[in-house]
Design brief:
single chain, mainly alpha, 8 helices, about 0% strand
Length: about 160
């Protein structure tokens, strides 16, 4: 989770600094990170709704992961309406392994939900940002340390400080 947060938040901060010239300085970027914390806390208050479900309910946007035909709607660990009953240890381990694949999508959904709530971002701007985040992650080869450093240099946001609460 921490790795995905570092990569996605750094890439988002870089995207805002590079491509969004309408007031996206370090303070505004840190404020959106604060807003994501509120969304995480809200989601964590209950097991009844995943971050992906929250995003889709509020924006109509469904975030998926690459190389899968599955939706969060199909997965019990993301959709509380699916009753799995009592799972065996093997089923539990298998579920956790599959759940790890969705962490990046959940982090992205949280970022999008925060942007929607705080600044009214709709599908068009969120798609634009998602593409920019993907391009930046690829540019840096998904290198966590390089992204964090670039975040400090380009966006003037020290990620560790911005995320400490």
């Amino acid at each position: 989770m921490k790795k995905q947060v570092d990569i996605i938040y750094s890439a988002a901060a870089i995207a805002f600094a590079r491509y969004w010239n309408d007031g996206w300085g370090p303070l505004r970027i840190r404020r959106i990170f604060d807003e994501t914390l509120e969304a995480w806390n809200e989601c964590g208050e209950t097991n009844e709704m995943s971050m992906l479900e929250m995003l889709e309910n509020e924006t109509g946007i469904e975030v998926k992961i690459p190389d899968t035909d599955k939706s969060w709607h199909d997965l019990a660990f993301l959709n509380a309406k699916i009753d799995m009953g009592r799972m065996t240890r093997a089923q539990w381990i298998y579920m956790r392994q599959r759940q790890k694949q969705w962490i990046g999508a959940m982090v992205m959904a949280c970022m999008f939900l925060a942007l929607h709530r705080k600044y009214g971002f709709g599908p068009e701007r969120l798609l634009r940002l998602m593409n920019q985040i993907d391009e930046i992650r690829i540019e840096f080869g998904y290198d966590r340390k390089a992204l964090i450093k670039a975040c400090e240099e380009e966006a003037r946001v020290v990620l560790k400080e911005a995320l400490e609460k």
